[in-house]
Amino acid sequence: MSRLKRFLTVLVTLMFSLAAQAGSHINILVYHHVSENTPASTSVSPAQFREHLQLLQDNGFNVVDLESTLAQLQRGETVPDNAVAITFDDGYHNIYDNAWPLLKTFNFPFTVFVATDAIDQQYSDMMSWDQLRDMHQAGVTIANHSSDHGYLVRHQPRDEQWLTSTIANIEHAQERLEEELGSGVPKWLAYPYGEFSDALAERLQTLNYTAFAQHSGGVWSGSDFQAIPRFAAAGIYANPKTLLTKLQSRPMPVDEAQVSDMVTTQSRPELVATLVERNDFAKALNCFVDGAWQDSSWPSDLTFRVQSDTDLGEGRHRYNCTAKARSGDFYYWYSKPWLIYGQQDR
């Protein structure tokens, strides 16, 4: 276990106790396109997006500024009840044209993560720097999605040269954002495709970055702030009923410091997750591998184990585990992403 993970292990139980007392967590949504003319898997129509915003308003959710709310969580402070944040990845112009006017109507804050090379090269489907400045000056948070939106942990040996090159990619994007937008750009990164490794996350932590992934789940003070989960809300995940269930969920109190790297060569990766507080999850826990139910076991009162019973192909996969609360109409939620990549130099 790395020194960073050992340090997190020492702190996580105390942080969960504080968070549990305050009920302190936030659920973050991630979108890409708000358009009827873009890939269905990453899109919602303007009408669907308005429906989502109305859902948030009608059900008493507090749509919060992500930067200040994350800072509160990292300090172990209370955040507003039913806190939700809205994010967009990539910086497509339909966010400026279609999403922003609706968000203004509801007076909801939001964040846009942009890959700066596409902006510099003036891709026709991306926002311009002038549009990003317009949003930034209006209080929208604009943040880093790397320079080139490449696969950060694939196609290269995972060595110091790879890590140096990857960090240079990220730092270049940060510099371009600060050059074009001035002050107020947070030191954040949304991993392209949600792919990361322990080595990359640990280096980002030493550089004071907070990083966001694309696996599902809520955020609490014991979360890994180098791999913050977000709920996808587009394509097959846009259904208002299932989206409401996710928005009402709470983070399962898993000690992230004990969880293995996302990147693996194993075709049946094993998740061993340890809770930081005793809870009656055993009877209610349901786990899924890429959406298919998967048996789980409890080696101890605090630890559960999940492993796919079929070989998984190379690429991204996800284990999701949920448990119905003993009191209250909500689920605890935990997701573990995997990147199976057999050619990695491990």
From TrEMBL:
Q: What is its main location?
A: secreted
* Localization annotation: Secreted
Q: Does the record carry Cell membrane as a key word?
A: no
Q: Which UniProt keywords apply?
A: Signal
* Entry keyword annotation includes Signal: yes
* MF GO annotations: hydrolase activity, acting on carbon-nitrogen (but not peptide) bonds
Record's InterPro entries? Glyco_hydro/deAcase_b/a-brl, NODB_dom, Polysacch_Deacetylase
Query: Taking every annotated instance into account, which residue ranges of this chain make up the domain NodB homology?
Result: 82-284
Q: Name one GO cellular component term.
A: extracellular region
This chain's protein is named Polysaccharide deacetylase family protein
What organism is this sequence from?
Reinekea blandensis MED297
